[in-house]
Amino acid sequence: MILLIAKSVSMLYLIPMNTDFTIRRMELSDIDDLIALGAAIEWKMIPENWLLTLEPFPEHCFVAIADGKLAGSAVSCCYDGKHAVISKVIVEKPCRRRGIAMNLMQRVMASYPRGTSFLLDSSPYGIELYRKLGFSEMEFPRIRKLRTFDFQLCPEDKAELAIPLEKTDLQEISALDFQVSRMDRSRILRKYFDAAPELAFKVVNESKITGFCLGNRSGICREICPLIADGTVAAKTLFLKSVMADENHGIIVDIPACHAELISFLESRSMTLLMELVRMKKGNAPFYVPQHYFSLLGSNLG
């Protein structure tokens, strides 16, 4: 295969010349096709799933066109101007093994300046592709994606320790989030809070916030994310409080496997494993602190 060196702002990639597909920037007009793309691999999405990254980061979101239709996608968001999270790397089954996923990844990475680090959560099927692109597994527990459409609350469930989060708390929880993620994610935390303040809760000890959770309704299931706490008791309390605030929706969470006690509790309340994910990095990705990170910000956002 003949190869052409393609140069972006400051990064070089090898791009096949004789491809039978094209890669272009994602557009708002692609939303219906993107929802259909997700449905083809049993990812049930709504427009907000895509808009969460497309609206603030359009320059880092791409689609593949093959056989006259949209056949693949990859999106990305960026924190601190130097840490990028890549997600929704999807290729419809009839178009796989044609280099589409690799080209999408290359275009996403080429849209950033030199020195940017990259982070993603991979299913077991994507690990080899990402390794070819220079990614390696992080020293981070496997991530268990759990879901239920009927969370089982019990009469003995108590959540009095968790109280509503207020807008004036955003600076404090952003600082707490930074201690865990090592990235300034205050922008997305504020967006989550503004969209669903009724799902935001905190635990306070001696006038200091020691744990919090936010909620996100950008899909067919509500995400309880992120959930950061100083221990499992507080994490469980925050989770239950969020469920009690909105019992009429399915729930989906990404939980590091090191939190076996919380996972066991959630499985006892009808949550089941959808898939296991592996956190991978390329470059100097930040070091997360999983011991206090009970529910991730979602595989879209790190």
Structural class: alpha+beta
Shape: globular
Q: What's the count of strands?
A: 16
Helix residue percentage? 25-40%
- Into which percentage range does the β-strand content fall? 25-35%
Main pleated-sheet profile = 14 strands, mixed
Distance between the termini: 36 Å
The H-and-E topology, N to C, reads as EEEHHEEEHEHEEEHHEEEHEHEE
**Taking all residues together, what is the mean pLDDT?**
89
Poorly predicted runs of 5 or more residues: 1-18
Summarize the structure.
This protein is an alpha+beta fold and 302 residues long.
Describe this structure in words.
Strands 3, 4, 5, 6, 7, 8, 9, 10, 11, 12, 13, 14, 15 and 16 form a 14-stranded mixed β-sheet that branches. Strands 1-2 form a two-stranded antiparallel ribbon. It is built from eight helices and 16 strands. It starts with a strand and ends in a 7-residue tail after the last strand. The chain has 302 residues and is an alpha+beta fold. A hairpin with a 2-residue loop joins strand 11 and strand 12 (208-216).
Name the descriptors:
302 residues, alpha+beta, 14-stranded mixed β-sheet, 8 helices, globular
How are the elements arranged and paired?
Elements: E1 3-7, E2 12-16, E3 21-25, H1 31-40, H2 47-54, E4 62-66, E5 69-79, E6 83-91, H3 100-110, E7 117-122, H4 127-132, E8 136-137, E9 143-148, E10 162-164, H5 170-181, H6 186-195, E11 201-205, E12 208-216, E13 221-229, H7 232-245, E14 250-256, H8 260-268, E15 272-282, E16 293-295
Parallel strand pairs: 6-7, 13-14
Antiparallel strand pairs: 1-2, 3-4, 4-5, 5-6, 7-15, 8-15, 9-14, 9-15, 10-11, 11-12, 12-13, 13-16
